[in-house]
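User: structure tokens for this one?
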Amino acid sequence: MDGYYDHPQGQGIRFLYEFMGGTREKAQEMVAPVDPITRADRLKGKKVLMIAAKRDEIVPAKMAEALWKAAGEPKIIWWDTTHYGAALSLAEGLAHVVKHFKD
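Assistant:
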């Protein structure tokens, strides 16, 4: 949640939210039911493959790393790209997925 709450793109909304009495803790509580990290511990020991973008402007790398750690540090592939730039590597990504589940 921290990586999103402090995200520069959310500054205006966050200001309005806090002006109306919102807090980081309240936001965390609201988001928890749909935040993947809430139940990431259920992935420990499972066959998981994560693909993350180092320069992702939507899902910050520190949030992908937090999910990776909470999930028990499964296999992760880091691409040196942005969120939308990752689409250019779709074929490569699919090849990683197929190989992951074949092994």
